[in-house]
Design goal:
Blueprint: E1 2-5, E2 8-11, E3 21-25, H1 26-41, E4 48-53, E5 58-63, H2 77-89, E6 93-101, H3 110-115, E7 120-126, E8 131-138, E9 141-150
Parallel strand pairs: 3-9, 6-7
Antiparallel strand pairs: 1-2, 4-5, 4-6, 7-8, 8-9
Length: 156
């Protein structure tokens, strides 16, 4: 997998098996939408991060957006490397990226697809509608992937 980090690329090799549908914690998605809307309200900034498959459902780890331009994002290489190392130590796997669209739909643009790691997942957050969409990027194309929201309850 190659993550575009500004003008440099970080190559990461992951051999995960792509599924037809994924689960994600509803609370975590709701929190990401809220964070994305706050960030969009302050100069149209995007949020971004990495998607981790924990073996049961997807987790989302927010990373710093190093881009100074509104409506764009780029990762900090050292931060991504640190997250990947920590995730691997836990026996988990980074399977893609997520980012927000402050003023457009949750569909990947040409630049999103071009800079995404091949054969990876991409979650996009539509700040205007407050919705998310999961995509599989492979061979220069993005295809929608079903994402079911899971309600996690704590044991009392």
């Amino acid at each position: 997998m190659i993550f575009r980090l500004g003008v440099r690329a970080l190559s990461l090799n992951f051999g995960f098996k792509m599924r037809k549908e994924y689960l994600a914690a509803k609370d975590q998605l709701t929190s990401l939408i809220r964070q994305a809307r706050v960030s969009a309200g302050s100069a149209g900034r995007e949020i971004a991060g990495l998607i981790v498959d924990n073996g049961f459902y997807l987790d989302f780890i927010r990373c710093k957006n190093a881009s100074r331009r509104s409506g764009s994002f780029s990762f900090v290489e050292k931060e991504v490397q640190s997250v990947v190392v920590a995730v691997e130590r836990l026996g988990r796997e980074v399977v893609g990226t997520f980012h927000s669209h402050p003023s457009s739909t949750a569909e990947p643009g040409d630049s999103d697809i071009e800079h995404a790691p091949d054969d990876s997942l991409m979650l996009i957050i539509d700040c205007t509608a407050g919705k998310t969409a999961l995509w599989r990027v492979k061979g220069g194309r993005a295809r929608p992937v079903k994402l079911k929201q899971l309600v996690l309850r704590s044991r009392s």
